[in-house]
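ok here's Pectinesterase inhibitor domain-containing protein, seq below lol
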Amino acid sequence: MAMPPSSSSADEAFLRARCATTKNATTCYKALLPFASSFNGSQVRISFAATAVAFDQLRGFLAELRQLQAAGGTGTGRPRDQALSGCVVVMVDGGDGEEEALSCLHWLESPGSNKERASAFFWARQHLSTAGSCSEGCIRNFVEAGNPTFSSNVGKKKKIVAMATTVDQYVDIALYLVVGIKL
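and the structure came out like this:
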């Protein structure tokens, strides 16, 4: 795998400044540093990269959920297995907005009327918000599925909640960066 071009100190300073506007600047900076040389001071480009990373995290989480489902579920009983199935459904819904969100962000780099740009901005935020709501819903449903110290498979539940929390964190970072775009 080819290494991305190294970034300049100006690229890194821009990245650091934009990441400082998020709730988790350190994670933002580490996740986006490999792409810093492509931002060229563009709030849209950094938002595009953060959105792509967030949806990549979501796809990885969904793959883990499906793998767990294929392996027989959580091993902790019907309520948690139903919560697992629910997580799969909501995460599929959350991932449905990826192409649209990225397309809207791409549109913001193109010339267009203020009305078109405002619409693209709105829909990019909307698709990210939906993805965030889905990961939060997955966490909530799984936690509410029963006693958090259930059975010998408590590790599976903790892993699911931790992975959903990670997805939510990356979606939040992308959302903060998108909201910070100046039209």
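fwiw The first helix runs from residue 9 to 19. kinda neat tbh
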